[in-house]
Amino acid sequence: MRKNFEISYLRIKFRANRPQMFRVYRRVDGGLWGLYHQFGECSGASRCSEPFAKLAPQVGGSAAFSPMQDMARPPGDLGLREWTTAKDLRISLEKFNTEGKDMSDARTLKSFYFAISDIAIGAR
User: Fold this and answer.
1) Does the keyword Disulfide bond apply (predicted)?
2) Using CA atoms, how far apart are residues 26 and 90, in angstroms rounded to an integer?
3) What is the tens place of the pLDDT at every residue in 94-122?
Protein backbone atom coordinates (compact mmCIF):
# COMPACT_ATOMS: atom_id res chain seq x y z
CA MET A 1 0.00 0.00 0.00
CA ARG A 2 1.58 3.24 -1.12
CA LYS A 3 0.87 6.55 0.54
CA ASN A 4 1.34 10.26 0.00
CA PHE A 5 4.29 12.09 1.54
CA GLU A 6 4.88 15.72 2.46
CA ILE A 7 8.04 16.66 0.57
CA SER A 8 10.40 19.01 2.38
CA TYR A 9 13.34 18.88 -0.05
CA LEU A 10 14.83 17.16 -3.08
CA ARG A 11 18.57 17.16 -3.75
CA ILE A 12 20.20 15.66 -6.83
CA LYS A 13 23.96 15.24 -7.07
CA PHE A 14 25.37 14.84 -10.56
CA ARG A 15 28.40 12.71 -11.43
CA ALA A 16 28.86 14.31 -14.84
CA ASN A 17 28.03 17.82 -16.07
CA ARG A 18 24.72 19.08 -14.74
CA PRO A 19 22.06 19.30 -17.42
CA GLN A 20 21.28 22.73 -18.80
CA MET A 21 17.62 22.03 -18.12
CA PHE A 22 15.62 19.44 -16.23
CA ARG A 23 12.20 19.21 -14.64
CA VAL A 24 10.75 17.55 -11.58
CA TYR A 25 7.16 16.32 -11.82
CA ARG A 26 4.90 15.09 -9.04
CA ARG A 27 1.82 12.92 -8.90
CA VAL A 28 -0.71 12.56 -6.10
CA ASP A 29 -2.89 9.47 -5.61
CA GLY A 30 -2.13 8.05 -9.06
CA GLY A 31 -3.43 11.16 -10.83
CA LEU A 32 -1.83 13.05 -13.68
CA TRP A 33 1.79 14.18 -13.59
CA GLY A 34 2.18 17.91 -12.96
CA LEU A 35 5.24 20.16 -13.10
CA TYR A 36 6.68 20.59 -9.61
CA HIS A 37 9.86 22.51 -10.42
CA GLN A 38 12.03 23.37 -13.41
CA PHE A 39 15.78 24.00 -13.37
CA GLY A 40 17.30 26.22 -16.09
CA GLU A 41 15.80 28.08 -19.07
CA CYS A 42 12.78 29.41 -17.23
CA SER A 43 11.08 31.35 -20.05
CA GLY A 44 8.20 32.47 -17.86
CA ALA A 45 7.84 29.27 -15.82
CA SER A 46 6.78 30.27 -12.32
CA ARG A 47 8.36 27.29 -10.55
CA CYS A 48 11.88 27.65 -11.85
CA SER A 49 15.53 27.97 -10.76
CA GLU A 50 17.27 29.52 -13.76
CA PRO A 51 20.83 30.23 -12.56
CA PHE A 52 21.60 26.68 -11.41
CA ALA A 53 23.10 25.57 -14.77
CA LYS A 54 25.69 28.34 -14.65
CA LEU A 55 26.91 27.56 -11.12
CA ALA A 56 30.28 25.96 -10.40
CA PRO A 57 31.26 23.20 -10.17
CA GLN A 58 29.78 21.87 -13.36
CA VAL A 59 30.98 18.29 -12.75
CA GLY A 60 29.92 16.84 -9.42
CA GLY A 61 27.55 19.72 -8.74
CA SER A 62 24.13 19.42 -7.24
CA ALA A 63 20.68 20.97 -7.53
CA ALA A 64 18.19 21.31 -4.70
CA PHE A 65 14.55 22.22 -4.41
CA SER A 66 12.40 22.84 -1.34
CA PRO A 67 8.71 23.35 -2.12
CA MET A 68 8.14 25.06 1.24
CA GLN A 69 10.98 27.57 0.89
CA ASP A 70 11.06 28.21 -2.85
CA MET A 71 7.44 29.25 -3.20
CA ALA A 72 6.15 32.47 -1.66
CA ARG A 73 2.76 30.89 -2.05
CA PRO A 74 1.68 27.70 -3.80
CA PRO A 75 0.36 27.93 -7.37
CA GLY A 76 -3.35 28.21 -8.06
CA ASP A 77 -5.76 27.33 -5.30
CA LEU A 78 -3.42 24.85 -3.61
CA GLY A 79 -2.69 25.22 0.08
CA LEU A 80 0.82 24.57 1.39
CA ARG A 81 -0.04 21.03 2.51
CA GLU A 82 -1.45 20.14 -0.91
CA TRP A 83 1.54 21.75 -2.66
CA THR A 84 4.09 19.74 -0.66
CA THR A 85 2.19 16.42 -0.95
CA ALA A 86 3.25 13.82 -3.51
CA LYS A 87 3.03 10.09 -3.94
CA ASP A 88 5.43 9.89 -6.89
CA LEU A 89 8.23 12.13 -8.17
CA ARG A 90 9.70 11.95 -11.67
CA ILE A 91 12.90 13.64 -12.86
CA SER A 92 13.18 14.45 -16.54
CA LEU A 93 16.72 15.35 -17.69
CA GLU A 94 16.03 17.28 -20.86
CA LYS A 95 18.97 19.27 -22.20
CA PHE A 96 22.73 18.75 -22.12
CA ASN A 97 24.91 21.57 -20.83
CA THR A 98 27.23 21.65 -23.86
CA GLU A 99 29.21 24.70 -22.69
CA GLY A 100 28.90 26.17 -26.19
CA LYS A 101 30.66 23.28 -27.97
CA ASP A 102 29.79 22.40 -31.56
CA MET A 103 27.42 19.45 -31.34
CA SER A 104 27.59 18.58 -35.05
CA ASP A 105 30.73 16.47 -34.48
CA ALA A 106 29.78 12.89 -33.51
CA ARG A 107 32.77 12.51 -31.14
CA THR A 108 31.83 15.67 -29.26
CA LEU A 109 28.20 14.57 -29.07
CA LYS A 110 29.20 11.18 -27.60
CA SER A 111 31.19 12.91 -24.85
CA PHE A 112 28.00 14.28 -23.26
CA TYR A 113 25.81 12.17 -21.03
CA PHE A 114 23.63 12.45 -17.93
CA ALA A 115 24.85 10.80 -14.73
CA ILE A 116 23.32 11.14 -11.28
CA SER A 117 25.33 9.90 -8.31
CA ASP A 118 22.79 10.54 -5.52
CA ILE A 119 19.20 11.56 -4.98
CA ALA A 120 18.02 12.58 -1.52
CA ILE A 121 14.39 13.28 -0.71
CA GLY A 122 13.30 14.62 2.66
CA ALA A 123 9.70 13.72 3.40
CA ARG A 124 7.36 12.57 6.11
Assistant:
1) yes
2) 6
3) 877 767 777 677 777 777 778 899 999 99
